[in-house]
């Protein structure tokens, strides 16, 4: 039976013990602390489970899944540059991760019901609502029955006109509207993201309203089991050499089951 628990906040755990993994996977942006690490915890992969890291980038999540959870991991990404970085890591520290070039919004190169869990972290901010829906369709196909999918992106609240990221109260991220569409619709924003060393990353990203993923997941057959909100804390600001207000919703995760 379908049910959705009330939204909940996952308490942030001090990052001081995990600033370095010793393998070059340094945590440098707020998303590492409030997006990636909580997502791994929520996904809770078990030893021996087969996990797909959809949109794996250079393989941070994939490596964590092997090292910290004992999972068997496949990663895929559409960027040959990111994949070559991931494969380079694999050469330096062989963890048995297989990396494939694939667009996760197209037919995935895996048989049906291949995976116990799927992680899609910091990816769908790059994809249109139609592409997100296609990904959920593909994910449903390759996930086993009873399997779990976690999706994590910047919190939709961050894009709202009164959020710290719009009013200059967050030194680590700024959003600027590019369209006049109502906030009930997905739309593109200019993003300025700053890491702990002050490096600036400018890009264009998709804002998706909070209702979009649960709706699309349901349409593709998933049950959205929980929605998590990650609040900005002083610890995270300090870890990232960032400043500004705290207590606002900065990242969120949607956990769904097939
Ligand atoms: C910010 S990185 C996150 C990488 C990884 N998930 C992590 O957390 O370390 C976003 C990645 O998503 C990939 N990506 C975005 N849309 C994609 C798509 N439709 N298919 C495959 N990869 C995609 C990009 O190429 C990029 O490598």
Tags for this entry?
8-stranded mixed β-sheet, single chain, alpha/beta, disordered N terminus, binds S-adenosylmethionine, about 260 residues, globular, 3-stranded antiparallel β-sheet, Rossmann fold
Please sum up the structure shown:
The chain is of the alpha/beta class.
Structure description:
- The chain is globular, with a radius of gyration of 17 Å.
- The strands form two sheets. Strands 1-10-11-6-5-2-3-4 form an eight-stranded mixed β-sheet. The chain has a three-stranded antiparallel β-sheet with strand order 7-8-9.
- It is of the alpha/beta class and 258 residues long.
- The chain has helices at residues 30-43, 60-69, 80-92, 129-142, 164-167, 212-219, 234-239; strands at 8-9, 50-54, 72-77, 98-101, 115-121, 143-154, 173-177, 187-194, 200-207, 223-231, 249-257.
- It has seven helices and eleven strands.
- The longest helix is centred in the first third of the chain and has 14 residues, at 30-43.
- Helices cover 27% and strands 29% of the residues.
- Helix 4 (129-142) packs across helix 6.
- Strand 5 (115-121), helix 4 (129-142) and strand 6 form a beta-alpha-beta unit.
- It has one domain (8-155, 209-257): 3-Layer(aba) Sandwich (Rossmann fold).
- It binds S-adenosylmethionine (SAM).
- S-adenosylmethionine binds at residues 36, 55-57, 60-61, 77-79, 82, 103-105, 121-123, 126-127, 131.
């Amino acid at each position: 039976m379908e049910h959705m628990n009330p939204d909940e906040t996952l308490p942030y755990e001090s990052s001081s013990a995990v600033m370095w993994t010793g393998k070059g996977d340094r945590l440098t942006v707020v998303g590492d602390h409030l997006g990636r690490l909580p997502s791994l915890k929520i996904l809770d992969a078990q030893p021996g489970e087969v996990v797909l890291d959809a949109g794996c980038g250079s393989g941070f999540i994939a490596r964590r899944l092997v090292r910290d959870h004992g999972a068997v991991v496949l990663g895929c990404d559409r960027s040959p540059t990111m994949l070559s970085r991931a494969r380079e890591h694999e050469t330096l520290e062989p963890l048995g991760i297989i990396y494939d070039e694939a667009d996760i919004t197209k037919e995935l190169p895996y048989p049906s019901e291949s995976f116990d869990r799927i992680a899609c972290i910091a990816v769908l901010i790059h994809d249109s609502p139609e592409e997100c829906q296609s990904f959920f369709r593909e994910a449903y196909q390759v996930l086993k029955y009873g399997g779990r999918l976690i999706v994590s992106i910047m919190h939709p609240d961050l894009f709202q006109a009164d959020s710290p990221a719009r009013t200059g109260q967050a030194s680590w991220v700024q959003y600027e509207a590019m369209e006049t569409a109502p906030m009930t619709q997905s739309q593109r924003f200019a993003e300025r993201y700053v890491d702990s060393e002050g490096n600036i990353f400018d890009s264009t990203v998709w804002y998706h309203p909070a209702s979009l993923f649960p709706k699309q997941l349901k349409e593709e057959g998933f049950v959205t089991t929980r929605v998590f909100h990650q609040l900005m804390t002083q610890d995270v600001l300090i870890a990232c050499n960032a400043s500004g207000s705290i207590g606002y919703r900065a990242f969120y995760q949607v956990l769904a089951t097939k």
